[in-house]
Specification:
Elements lengths: L3 H25 L6 H19 L8 H16 L2 H18 L1
Protein name: AzlD family protein
Keywords: Membrane, Transmembrane, Transmembrane helix
Pfam family, one: AzlD
């Protein structure tokens, strides 16, 4: 069973990722962007993901460390959205069963 804090965290992470995409699109719609600004905007969701999973590198919970490994492997092979989904699902399931 997922507690309310975990569910709120998942929902806020999803909302944050969604808002970074939408707000970036709205802010720069119909404008010519420099290649540097394009690179920054394309990496914002990845930075949000890293800020969420970075504390897990020092976790003492085996479930978090295993989920981190699964997420890193997924990130090397898949795009951002499937990686986020795999990371969230694997973390939830491993925390439940380990």
């Amino acid at each position: 069973m997922i507690d309310s804090l975990t569910l709120a965290t998942i929902l806020l992470m999803a909302l944050t990722t969604y808002l970074t995409r939408i707000l970036g699109y709205v802010a720069v719609h119909n404008r010519t962007l420099s290649p540097r600004l394009m690179a920054v905007l394309e990496n914002v969701p990845g930075c949000v993901l890293i800020s969420v999973i970075a504390p897990r590198f020092v976790s003492d919970r085996p479930s978090d460390l295993l989920a981190l490994v699964i997420t890193i492997v997924a990130a090397t092979r898949l795009s951002l959205l499937p990686t986020v989904i795999i990371g969230v699902v694997s973390t939830g399931l491993l925390r439940q069963f380990l």
